[in-house]
Amino acid sequence: MNKLDLHSADGPQLRLPRLLSDGMILQMDRPSHLWGWAAPGAAVTVLVDGEKCISCTAGEDGRFDCRIPAPSAGAGHTITFSDGENSRTVKDVLAGRVFFCTGQSNMELPMERVKDRYPEEMSIENPLIRTFKITEAVSYDGPLEESLTGKWTSLAAPDIAQFSATALFFAKALFKETGTPVGLINATLGGSRIESWMSREMLEGYDELLSEADRYADKEFYDSVVQRNLLNQETWLSALDEADRYHTAPLPLPDGAADKAIHLPVMFRDTELKGFTGSIWLQRDFYIEKELCESPEDTDWKLWLGTMVDKDEAYVNGVPVGRTEYQYPPRKYPVPGSLLKSGRNILTVRLTVEQGLGRVTPGKPMAIFPARFVTPEEAAGENKAVFLDGEWKYTIGAACGAAPETDFVNWKATGLYNAMTAPCHNYVIEAVLWYQGESNTHEPWDYMDLTKRQIAGYRKLWNDPDLPYYYVQLPNFVIDQTDPEQWPVFREKQRRLLEIPGTGMAVTFDAGEDNDLHPVAKKPVGERLARLVLAKDLRMPVEYTGPVPVKAQPGREAGQGADGFVLDLFLTHAAGMYEKPGSEGELRPAFEALTEDGTVLYPEKEELLEKDGIIRLWFTSEGPREGVGNPLPMQLRYLFTDTNHVNMIFNSDGLPMSPFILPVEGGEEKDHE
Q1: How far apart are the C-alpha atoms of 421 and 454, rounded to whole Å?
Q2: How many CA atoms lie within 13 A of 301 on its CB side?
Q3: Do 385 and 256 touch, CB atoms closer than 8 A?
C-alpha cells in the first residue's frame, strides 16, 4: 500500500481517513471497522457518545485498527478517537445500510442530468440518505490507503444535483421499505472499463493489461501522454479555428452566407456531409409573438438542441448562450429573455466534427421555450414553445483531417481500483452495486471471466465471502452500433453471471434510449436494484426479477414435422406474466430460433401459459421460414437485438424478462462466449 505522510513539522498527528468523517453511515448489522494513523506505538481509545468502547495500539507504521459494535439506530452519534495528546471527534454518525456504488457513466450520471425527467425529485430532503462521492483519481504504482477526496453529504438541495441518480433512486426505494438510513459510496468514472476497477491480483494472467498498467505507472510516461493529449487537441482546434472563415466573423451569419439546406435532426451520414470532418455553421430563423416575448413571467428561457457530435457553440441573435465540448451531454442552454426579440430571431450553431461521424441526434427535441416549463412538450400545451426541428441552412467553416485520438490515461487496468476502490475496503458495506459494461462491449477481453475475478477479488478485499454483488444489464441502445450482435451477446454474458451465488441482475431493456448511451430513466433501474436487496439480503416477500427462462424443449402438443414444430419455454418468477407492446418503430418478433446453418426462424404465434410457467411457441414452414422441416434448432433466443421494438414479456410485478440465449433440448448449442 502507498503510505500517507503522517508527520508534519509539529510531529505525529492523530488522523482519520476521509470515510470516517462527520455524517458517515456505518453498516448496522455487523461490527464497524474503524482505523486511522497516530504515532507508532500510541494507545488509541475510541469512545462512542462519550463512553469508552475500545482501545487499540498503533503499529510501527502508525496505523491502528479496531472494531466496535455498530451504534444503535436513531439520532446521530459521536465517535471520538484519542491518543492521550490529540483527539478527533466524528459527529452525526448513523447506523444503516451502506453500498459501494461503482462503474462507469450510467452509475455516475448525476440527478442534475435527469432533473427534467424527475423534476419533483429535486426538492426532496432526507437526512437519513447520504452519499460519499469520490472524484476521479488514478494510481498505477499500487493501491492507496486513503481516498484522495470525498465527504459525506445528506440528501438535500443543492447537493441532490450531484447524487448518482441510479444510486439515489435505489436508496429511496430501500428507505421506503425499511426506514433505515442508507449510505452510498460513489466511486465511478464515465468511460471506464472493468479492468480499470480491478487489482493486479485479480488480473493475474492478463499479461497485456498488466503491462499496460506498468507503462502508465511510469510518471514520466504518464505525464508525457497527458501533455501529448492536450497539445494534440489544442493544435488541431487552433488550426481549425484559424482555417474557419467565420470563426471571428460577426454573428449571426449574414443572410445568404449559409446557403445550403439541411433538415435537422439528422445523421450526417445520410446527407452530403457524410464523412465530413471540420467545422459547420448551422443557422435558422425562429419567430416569437410579441405577447410571449414581452410576457413579464417569461424573463428566462431554455434552449434545447438534443445531443450533437462532437462539439458545439450556440448563439441567439449573435450572443453566445452555451457550449459543450463533447458529444454526450444534452444541449440545454439558458437564454435570457432580454436576448429575444418580437418577431424574427436567429439561432446559430457552430458544430465541430472530429472523426467524420457528425450528427444532430434524431429523436431528441429541439425547441426554445420559457424556463418556467420543465419540457418543451409542457410549454407547447400552452402554445409557448417554438420547435426548431425542420429546415436549417448551413455552410462549411473549414474542412480538415480527423482530430488526433485521445489516450484516456485514467481508464487503464488497475488505475481506478488503486485510487478509488482500494481505499474503501476497510469500510464495512452491505453490497456492491455495479453498473458498467458499455466500454467493454468493444473490448477483446473475456468480460465474464473478468467479472468473476472482480467479484471474487472484492469479496476477498472486503473479507466477506458472501458479499452480494448486484449489477445492471445493459439496456436497449442503437444509434452508435455497428455490429448487430455485439450488445445482445454481451447481455447474455451478463445474464450468465447469475450462476455465481450472491449475485443479482437488474434488467433494463425497457428503460434505455435507442439514441442515447445515457438514458435518463434511472428510477426503474434504482428500484430494481433495491428489490434485489430487499428480497435477497433482507428476506422480504418482494419479487426481485422478471420471468426467468429455465429450459427450452420440443412441446408435447406438436412435434417436429412437415407442418413445423412447437417449442415450450419453461420459466420461473412468471406469475401473472403478460406481453407489453414495445417502443414505437418497426416491429420484429421477440423470439427467434437459430438452426445449425444459421437460419433464423420466427414463431407463428405465442401462448403464455401463466399457470404452468410456460411460453409455447408455434413455428410453421409457411412463408419465408426455410428449413423448418430440418432437425430442431439449436438455440432459442429472446430480444437478440439492440432495440425494444417488440412485445416484451413482464410478470405481475412489472419486471421484464431478460434477453437470453438458451440451447434447445435435442438441438445443438452454439456458444456465444
Answers
A1: 12
A2: 24
A3: no
Q: Which three cell numbers stand for residue 407?
A: 489516450
Confidence at residue 630, expressed as pLDDT on a 0 to 100 scale? 47
| Confidence at residue 560, expressed as pLDDT on a 0 to 100 scale | 47
CB 514 within 8 A of CB 534: no
C-alpha cell at 486: 455485439
Return the pLDDT at 392. Answer: 98
Where is average pLDDT lowest: 404-418, 433-447, 511-525, 629-643? 629-643
Q: Which residues contact 527 (CB under 8 A, 6 or more apart)?
A: 169, 170, 173
E strand intervals along 268-384:
278-288, 300-304, 308-309, 311-316, 319-324, 332-336, 343-353, 359-360, 367-370
User: Structural domain boundaries of the chain?
Assistant: 243-399, 548-663
Q: Give 72's pLDDT tier (boundaries 50, 70, 90).
A: confident
Question: Residue 671 CB: number of other CB atoms within 10 A?
Answer: 6
User: Residue 571's closest CA among 596, 591, 557?
Assistant: 591
- What is the full DSSP assignment across 138-202? --SSS-BSS-SS--EEEE-TTGGGGSBHHHHHHHHHHHHHH---EEEEEEE-TT--GGGGS-TTT
CA 513, CA 516: separation in Å to the nearest integer?
Answer: 5
Beta-ladder partners of 314 = 322, 349
| Secondary structure of residue 437 in the 3-state scheme | coil
604-622 pLDDT tens trace: 889 999 899 999 999 875 4
CB atoms within 10 A of CB 117: 16
Q: How far apart are CA 74 and CA 72, in angstroms?
A: 6
- Does pTM top 0.90 for this prediction? yes
The DSSP secondary structure of 623-673, one letter per residue, reads TT-TTTTSSPPSEEEES-SSS--S-EEE-TTSPBPPPEEEEBTTS------
For residue 646, how many other CB atoms are within 10 A of its CB? 22
Region of 127 (left: φ > 0; alpha: ψ -120 to 50; beta: rest) is alpha
Contacts of residue 148, defined as CB under 8 A and 6 or more positions apart, other chains included, come to 134, 135, 137, 419
Q: What CA–CA distances, in Å, run from 239 to 113, 247, 309, 606?
A: 33, 11, 19, 60
C-alpha cell at 247: 470563426
Instruction: Report the CATH architecture of 243-399.
Output: Sandwich (2.60)
Position of cell 428449413? 627
- pLDDT confidence of 3, banded at 50, 70, 90? very low
How many CB atoms within 10 Å of residue 519? 20
Q: What is the dihedral of CA 477, 478, 481, 487, to 10 degrees?
A: 40
Write the pLDDT tens digit of every residue in 255-268. 999 999 999 999 99
Decide: 335 and 303 in contact? Cβ < 8 Å.
yes
**CA 362 to each of CA 31, 195, 446: distance values in angstroms, whole numbers, following the listed order:** 53, 33, 33
Mean pLDDT along residues 126-148: 97
Give the contacts of 643 (CB within 8 A, at least 6 positions apart): 476, 477, 478, 514, 582, 583, 585
399-437 pLDDT per residue, tens: 999 999 999 999 999 999 999 999 999 999 999 999 999
Q: What is the pLDDT of residue 71?
A: 84
At residue 111, the 3 state secondary structure works out as: helix
Torsion angle (degrees, nearest 10) of CA 631, 632, 634, 637: 140
Provide the total of helices (H) and of strands (E) in the chain, helices listed first. Answer: 10, 38
Instruction: Report how far Cα 242 is from the mean position of its chain's Cα atoms.
Output: 37
Q: Quick one: average pLDDT of 459-478?
A: 97
